[in-house]
Amino acid sequence: MADIETAWTRLEAAAKAAGEKRIVELFDAEPGRLEALTLDVAGLHLDLSKQAWDEAGLEAALDLAHAADVEGARARMFGGEAINSSEGRAVLHTALRAAADADFKAAGVPVMAEVETVRQRMKSFSEAVRSGAITGATGKPFRAILHIGIGGSDLGPRLLWDALRPVKPEIDLRFVANVDGAEFALTTADMDPEETLVIVVSKTFTTQETLSNATAARAWLVEALGEAGANQHLAAISTALDKTAAFGVADDRVFGFWDWVGGRYSLWSSVSLSVAVACGWDAFQGFLDGGAAMDEHFRTASLEKNAPVLVALAQIFNRNGLDRRARSVVPYSHRLRRLASFLQQLEMESNGKSVGPDGRPAKRGTATVVFGDEGTNVQHAYFQCMHQGTEITPMELIGLSKSDEGPAGMHEKLLSNLLAQAEAFMVGRTTEDVVAELTAKGVSEAEIATLAPQRTFAGNRPSTLLLLECLTPQTFGALIALYEHKTFVEGVIWGINSFDQWGVELGKVMAGRILPELESGAVGTHDPSTSALIGRLKV
Ligand code: F6P
User: Fold this and answer.
1) pTM for the complete prediction?
2) Which candidate among 179, 186, 254, 356 keeps its CA 20 to 30 Å from the CA of 56?
3) Which is the catalytic residue, given 140, 363, 413, 508?
4) pLDDT (tens digit, 9 = 90+) per residue, 261-301?
5) Which ligand 1 atom is at minimum distance from the Cα of 266?
6) Which residues are within 8 A (CB) of 419 and not within 5 positions of it... i.e. 6 or more apart?
């Protein structure tokens, strides 16, 4: 096996050579390309054949994965070693979706008994709230949940709710994340405290935004129900049980998780209690099962046929081989419209690092910007730039093979757009073709000379197409687990720790210094711009 530097050099050379070819011509040049680059896993169909790699490029990417010892790293993660080295923690979100009798250990200590205990408590609680066995202080059943959290304590559950929510839920679910009071005001304006369960979600229970919103929610409950009544409307999710008690949440309303679950990987834990209540336990269990199915595939499949590995390698090929510094993820599914926001945290918080665990600079570029929104809407927004802009941005286009939601015929239209965009990105449209069309329409030669280049599409823009059989808790779970493992594989190849997030600290500390200055007007030492702004904004 090549050493890692040799493997990187080979990948870079192979990508340079592949980048000079036209993707669409690779199908004829390399028979078997489609079969080699499509796979079906856990209800997902993945087509990586419209990526820019040729056979040699794919081989070089796979060699790089072997040289980086992705298989060894994978075994260490599933084995519960403390691979989050800067925090001395194991990384075991996979245990959260495993069967009760699975054998997961964090640094040698079995974890499944505790995981199962919390799962059973979540199940009983969600069933009791849904059945009305647990009610609010005045005896009315809960008709709404206010989920308060931010980052990993918000983005995953929000996406999960959108994906699985009934069209007309018996229990509504609302989210508040930002410390901008407008969000709290707008979200709670039409909620009735008497029928609302407030679930405060914070791994650390120290996050300013969450604690501010939790305090506001508590006051909102107290105003309507009094102190004792308010407590009956509170639940909390945290690893900091001392702090939840200090906030006044009864112990039997606190659901824990563990330090081996990173915030952005926590939607499989009690962090999603609100969704389990609002959608019902079976839906949540189906989500866990889908994640477990993807885990089994990722853990056991060879790298060559491993979906998360191949999706990660496509990203590395684009990012490091072809210097593509952004990626757009576009679900052709309204229910998945927040996927890119979720992935921004998953990928950019995990892999947005410039140094490795040894403190040395990363030798190659790491996480790219990821952005996106739902198709077809984005076709009428930024796709112009994707088709004809000067930057080439690789795309992931996601769709549902089947959907019976909504009026008949609309899903086919959605799918036709999905397929058309993927084809158009790759094939483009030649100037000759445009000239022929304009000539046939009788456009003058002079006009054609200026119009034809503007209406030409260079194409050769890479994309991956991902289809869920249909949107079920299981396929959705598999999709999220796919992205988690993709992110992990990239981190291994880039040689960084994907499980810490020191980069979010500095701004928090500085905001803590500025707040009292805004309140008191006593401006401390800052750069001239910041001092002037504090002076302007002080209360
Ligand atoms: O943004 C940093 C971060 O720590 C994320 O990793 C986490 O998801 C989020 O803040 C919220 O943290 P907590 O759940 O502790 O409130």
Assistant:
1) 0.97
2) 356
3) 508
4) 999 999 999 999 999 999 999 999 999 999 999 999 999 99
5) 8
6) none
Q: Is residue 277 a part of any domain in this protein? A: no
Confidence grade of residue 239 (pLDDT, cut at 50, 70, 90): confident
On the CB side of 283, how many CA atoms lie within 13 Å of its CA? Answer: 22
One domain for residues 71 and 210: no
Same domain, 481 and 530: no
Q: Is 423 a catalytic residue?
A: no
CA of 89 to the centre of ligand 1 (A): 16
Catalytic residue list contains 363: no
Do 71 and 47 lie in one domain? The reply is yes
Whether 514 and 486 map to the same domain: the answer is no
Q: Are 496 and 353 in contact (CB under 8 A)?
A: yes
Same-domain pairing of 379 and 471: yes
Residue 384, domain member (yes or no): yes
The domain of 523 spans 503-537
Q: Are residues 35 and 60 in the same domain?
A: yes
189's CB contacts (< 8 A; 6+ apart) are: none
Structure confidence at residue 539 as a pLDDT band (50, 70, 90): confident
Residues contacting ligand 1 via CB (< 6 Å): 150-153, 202-204, 207, 210, 263-264, 349, 501, 504
**Omega cis (within 30) before 366:** no
Query: Is 508 a known active-site residue?
Result: yes
